[in-house]
From TrEMBL:
<keyword id="KW-0092">Biotin</keyword>
<dbReference type="Pfam" id="PF00364">
    <property type="entry name" value="Biotin_lipoyl"/>
</dbReference>
<dbReference type="InterPro" id="IPR000089">
    <property type="entry name" value="Biotin_lipoyl"/>
</dbReference>
<dbReference type="InterPro" id="IPR011053">
    <property type="entry name" value="Single_hybrid_motif"/>
</dbReference>
<protein>
    <submittedName>
        <fullName>Biotin carboxyl carrier protein of methylcrotonyl-CoA carboxylase</fullName>
    </submittedName>
</protein>
<feature type="domain" description="Lipoyl-binding">
    <location>
        <begin position="1"/>
        <end position="70"/>
    </location>
</feature>
<dbReference type="InterPro" id="IPR050709">
    <property type="entry name" value="Biotin_Carboxyl_Carrier/Decarb"/>
</dbReference>
């Protein structure tokens, strides 16, 4: 199982996937907002979204778990 983690601290602006959805490596799964910039966070491998650990509006720290892909 691969875990998609936050690359920096910020607010979850948008969750782009749903549990059970198929994703491809490089596909954006979450967009963070930090310092008025939108930072897309992508899946690192192909798979199925098993669990989404955040909701839109949540604050996350660097390396926090966002999404599990298997």
């Amino acid at each position: 199982m691969a875990t998609v983690q936050a690359s920096m601290a910020g607010n979850v602006w948008k969750v782009l996937v749903a549990e059970g959805e198929e994703v491809k490596a490089g596909q954006d799964v979450v967009i963070l907002e930090s310092m008025k910039m939108e930072i897309p966070i992508a899946a690192e491998e192909d798979g199925t979204v098993q669990k989404i650990h955040v909701s839109e509006g949540d604050f996350v720290n660097e390396a926090d778990r966002l999404v599990d892909v298997e």
